[in-house]
Automatic annotation (TrEMBL):
It holds the Pfam family TraB_PrgY_gumN. Its EC number is 3.4.-.-. It is a single-pass type I membrane protein. One of its GO terms (biological process) is proteolysis. Its cofactor is Co(2+); Mn(2+). The lineage of its organism: Eukaryota, Metazoa, Chordata, Craniata, Vertebrata. The keyword Acyltransferase does not apply. It comes from Panthera pardus. The gene is TRABD2A. Residues 1-19 form the signal peptide. The keyword Cell membrane applies. It is found in: Cell membrane; Membrane. This is Metalloprotease TIKI. Keywords: Cell membrane, Glycoprotein, Hydrolase, Membrane, Metal-binding, Metalloprotease, Protease, Signal, Transmembrane, Transmembrane helix, Wnt signaling pathway. Metalloprotease that acts as a negative regulator of the Wnt signaling pathway by mediating the cleavage of the N-terminal residues of a subset of Wnt proteins. Following cleavage, Wnt proteins become oxidized and form large disulfide-bond oligomers, leading to their inactivation. It is an enzyme of class 3 (hydrolase).
Length: 352
């Protein structure tokens, strides 16, 4: 999973996972063809060997929104595998501290010193609005679990003036009413990591924090300012009620629960970076948006797929008698140059 998916991990870890998800027939996912539960969500791939190993595609949403739609064969593959690997080691405190330090401006610098004055003022005004609104955004269920708005705001946005602009952009993107309502329930990756620990499985990671984090800090200053300005414009339009976001978290969940393997929105979930390409942008700004999209696609999807695939191969070779379950963002298995393609190139056979 990508770093900015985990930079709010302490928020997600606030509460125990609580009761098991509800049983019985899942609620309708409103899929076009209304398939049976057993045919839904085919984000499981088998690596043919003895014992078999598996790839499983996740998305970064509360596990309770998708768990009932994940078919039994995926859950059985998880249960049967003795070793579970993730993108990052989600249960290691070092992961959190390394992500936190990666987000910070150099010692002695503040956002006010580096941002254009008008953007800084708009950012400050927007965060004041979010803080004011947050109590009304929270659900009775969250309040019942002891989550308080001030605590949640500080957990997500505390120390924002010391963060690099690119991380502030991602933070603003996640400070929406829909996202706030989902806090306090572990996202799917974290839930699987907690389950693996509970079941005393061996766990590990195929990436280091720095490998996920440094590409974000590699955007040049004008690209970062463009991205932050676009994010603020989008949030300001949402506040004014004049904008509909083309892809929402609800769309992502529906595509996932319906087993839609072709959807473009998974790549943005796996890179955790918003799509800035917009038909209404002036030509020069559209070029900037395309440069950012292309940079992130290369750095946060393709290069990582290559590295992750090679590390998976090394693990399979080092432990030929072990069954692995690799849980990575679904976007790493779709499109071109996927993790699966890397393994196939290395001579491994697999099926869906």
């Amino acid at each position: 999973m990508s770093p900015w998916g985990w930079f709010l991990l302490q928020t997600l870890c606030l509460l125990p996972t609580g009761a098991a998800p509800r049983r019985g027939a899942p609620a309708s996912a409103n899929c076009e063809l209304k398939p049976q539960q057993s045919e839904l969500n085919s984000f499981l791939w088998t690596i043919k060997r003895d014992p078999p190993s598996y790839f499983f595609g996740t998305i970064h949403v509360p596990y309770t929104r998708v768990w009932d739609f994940i078919p039994d064969n995926s859950k059985e593959a998880f249960q049967q595998s003795s070793i579970v690997y993730f993108e990052l080691d989600l249960t290691d405190p070092y992961t959190i501290s390394a992500l936190t330090s990666c987000q910070m401006l150099p010692q002695g610098e503040n956002l006010q010193d580096v941002l254009p004055r008008d953007i800084y003022c708009r950012l400050k005004r927007h965060l004041e609005y979010v803080k004011l609104m947050m109590p009304s955004w929270m659900t009775p269920d969250q309040r019942g679990k002891g989550l308080y708005a001030d605590y949640l705001f500080n957990a997500i946005a505390g120390n924002w003036e010391r963060k690099r602009p690119v991380w502030v952009m991602l933070m603003v993107n996640s400070l929406t009413e829909v996202d706030i309502k989902s806090r306090g329930v572990p996202v799917l990756d974290l839930y699987l990591a907690q389950e693996a620990e509970r079941l005393r499985k061996q766990t590990g990671a195929v990436e280091k924090v720095e490998e996920q984090c440094h590409p974000l800090n590699g955007l040049n200053f004008s690209q970062v300012i463009f991205a932050l300005n676009q994010t603020l414009l989008q949030q300001e339009s949402l506040r004014a009620g004049s904008l509909q976001i083309p892809y929402t978290t609800e769309d992502l969940i529906k595509h996932y629960n319906c087993g839609d393997l072709s959807s473009v929105i998974f790549s943005h979930d796996s890179s955790q970076v918003p799509n800035f390409i917009n038909a209404t942008l002036p030509p020069q700004e559209r070029v900037t948006a395309q440069e950012i999209d292309s940079y992130f696609r290369q750095e946060l999807i393709y290069k990582r797929n290559e590295r992750m695939g090679k590390r998976v191969k090394a693990l399979l070779e080092e432990f030929p008698d072990k069954g692995f379950f690799f849980a990575f963002g679904a976007g790493h298995f779709m499109g071109n140059n996927t993790v699966l393609d890397v393994l196939r190139r290395e001579g491994y056979e697999g099926d869906e």
